[in-house]
Design a protein that fits this description.
Layout lengths: L2 H20 L10 E2 L1 H4 L3 H9 L8 H20 L4 E3 L3 E8 L2 E5 L3 E4 L3 E12 L12 E3 H5 L5 H17 L3 E14 L2 E11 L5 H13 L8 H4 L1 H4 L21 H27 L4 E6 L2 E15 L1 H8 L4 H4 L6 H8 L7 E10 L1
Helix pairs in contact: 1-4
The structure holds iron/sulfur cluster.
Iron/sulfur cluster binds next to helix 3, helix 8 and helix 9.
Length: about 350
Amino acid sequence: MSELILERLFKPVIREIQNLSKEGRELKITPGTIGITTLIRCPQQAKLRLLYPEMKPDTLEIDDGYLHEKITKQAILNVYPKNTLIEPAVPENPIEVENVLIQGHPDVVIEGKKAIIAIEIKCMNFLPGYRLPSQHEKFIYGEDAKRLIIPEQYIIQARAQKYLLSLKADKQVIQYLFIKALIKINGRMKKYYVIRQVEDALREEEIRFYARKHATQSSPIWDWECAYCTFNQEGLCEKAVKPAPRLLLPETLPEDVRNAIERLQELRREMKDLESYLKKALYGKKVIITKDGKEREIGWVAREVARWDVEGIIKKLGIKSAQYLMVNWRRTRQLEEALREETESLREMQTVIDFKI
Ligand code: SF4
């Protein structure tokens, strides 16, 4: 089947999966209020969402998350049809904190006789953990779930929902995170449901902190936000920041992260040994190999390198040259166009032979 037919056949199917995953997701947001997800995320994102309503994060992980959420909500409704509310507005009237109107929408709320049970539903690619016992059915809970490293923003979100639910509740509020994730136990990756109880509600001063940040600042709350932000990827945000690296002690890292670092170092050492062996074995030779359907040369491969006469370029282009001197090789064509027939006199081509693998 040609690529064109395959594209025509599957593209609409993929689009439909996306539509189905998003179907029924529209929340009834009270105008002028913000939800918990917005409250604990970069305030600049909320402003840009108003400016560019068409910009929506679009990844398979998000589709998978929506689908998991949808089916889980339906399953809870089927099992507890009488007392279950899906994404109710909590509290009924938004609260005002630091001039910000806040109203949450917990994924699921089950009203019991003695307690209110709230559930936040999540789906993750991989959830690292440590010292997990090997015997598990399909779900991990209790003390074992505490040994999984759940992203902090999920915990904060659940604690914030618990805070809002507790404001008007006349019963105890029990808050859970219900996560579907790939987990590695005894070297084997498997999907599990994780049920993690979130004990403490957010404290009032914490809610105030997030509300104040939302009202007055434009910088991200989490270190990783800019790296995953659609507005950054599309070059629409001037406030994007690269987080300054923080110094951590290796022993404070989760076991999985430490194992991954060790394994990578081992692989690097192996790669170095193999490369120096191949440098000798292929000395003065090159081979064409096929990788991912493409042919490429490996071994001792010649390539053309341009050495530019920078002073000559400045003389020729004057002040305009500054924009080229910052540029890397990807702008070579524009530089050649600007220099026109003088290109060759200002450039010396050399052939260098490197080892490539
Ligand atoms: S790029 Fe960073 S600062 Fe800008 S909206 Fe996204 S998260 Fe916020």
